Amino acid sequence: MIHTDDCRQLQALHRRVAVYIAPYRAVLLAFSGGLDSMVLLDIITALRDGDEAMGSACSKILRAVHINHGLNRDADRWVKHCAYECHRRKVKFNIVRVVIDSTQDGLEAAARGARYRALAATLAADECLLTAHHQDDQVETLLLALKRGSGPAGLASMTADMPFHDHRLVRPLLDCSRAELEAYACARELSWIEDESNTNMRFDRNFLRLQILPLLRQRWPHFASASARSAQLCAGQERLLDELLAETLDDLMSPDGSLRLTPLMVMSNLRRAALLRRWLANLSVRMPSRLQLARLWQEVALSRRDAVAKMQIDDCQVRRFRDRLYVLPSVLPKLAKLADGVTILPWPPGYDQLQLPTDMGIIFRQTVDSDSPLQGERLSDGIASADTIVAIKSVVRAPMCDELVSIRFGPVRGLLHITGRRHGRTLKKIWQELEIPPWLRGHTPLLFYNDQLIAALGIFVTWEGTKQASEAQLHLFWLPNKNQAIYYRSINRK
């Protein structure tokens, strides 16, 4: 039986969470099974079901996901516990297993990076991500940022609602202390996982939690809430900078996410660094250190125009091409084996679509008589929303009955004559003139009839592929994989 005072406290906690999740129709809970996420699971299901003691119901689509790092001998038992707690609350539950590579950043950072990548990949189109971080976590994050010598962005620590890979990341418990969550769990008779690694002093967070924070609270009881206010003030300053720099950043960024360099050259170091950080944040790249940002500018941005300069940040690459900086996903290097000039993908008659290998997407085709309206226009020209995959369109003559259609990648020998050009050019020269970045050249599908190049999809059509007045048209729509799509947004506009 819950006492009246306890009930009021529980209702207050429910109201806090309800305010944070109110804007979202569907939520995905990062569910470890520990105290914090157990409390959050209990609250959101009580809100969904309209628990009589806790208040009115709110309509939400709920899912939970457990990331299994495979680092603890009890990992399988934790999975069973999480599955059981979700099953009895009628919450759809998923398990994602990740592999940790701690060779570069250490175990803590590697596990965190793998966890968030897995969470980003698990989110559905209309979901926001919920995590159960609380005020004590906020203080630990702030102290770790101080230890690293972070600036205002790092000292802002965690925010309650922030962008996350084209979604939102919401932390409804960020204003709650761990003591409040423990009181809630006891009042609701919850069962949660105790991870013995949380007592391992080898990890910085554990050292702060077990050795430093108790002393600070003993001397200054309100240290946690005061630290949280400091983090909020830093976050406020960062939001103000976001507003002040938003227009400049919009002017510098292209639809494909690249950043113009020339205007940055004449800016002060502070202004330029602030813009670079916000550009990277917009593309969901982990915030670089001051040293990394200096290297990015000196070694990549200021590299020779013809240099192949690049810098790795986690699983992304920052590269320069001409007057722009680009952020590339790790998926692109995996496609290089196709750009060998040998791989041929036949496209037999009677098939309206061709699935490309190595997760490069799919191509659709439609033959249209010269006087017929196009029925497939809905696929073409740009991205309708952040969750839509770009469709890259080409219009060529339809093949003759004795012409074999295929898709190839990579180099093409000899001079090519393309529409809009009077003289022949090599393919390399064409790529350069059309300002196609080097990393896209080997991954752009090339349409062949027999051994004759007809088109580079979305980029150019050769004289041999140009439709004559009486010929039927072939409309091609290439839908790249979502990880690549952003880098092809502006191709049809060139």
Features:
494 residues, alpha+beta, Rossmann fold, 3 domains, five-stranded antiparallel beta sheet, 37% helix, 19% strand, globular, Rossmann-like_a/b/a_fold, tRNA_Ile_lys_synt, nucleotide-binding, ATP binding
Report on the architecture of this protein:
- With 494 residues, the protein is an alpha+beta fold.
- The chain folds into three domains: 4-231, Rossmann fold, CATH 3.40.50.620; 253-330, Chorismate Mutase Domain, subunit A (Up-down Bundle); 338-493, no CATH class.
- The protein is built from 15 helices and 19 strands.
- The protein has a six-stranded mixed beta sheet, with helices on both faces. It has a five-stranded antiparallel beta sheet with strand order 11-15-16-17-18, with no helix packed on it.
- α2 links the parallel β1 and β2 (61-68).
Task: Give a quick summary of the entry.
The protein is α+β, with helices and mostly antiparallel strands and 494 residues long. The protein has 15 helices and 19 strands.
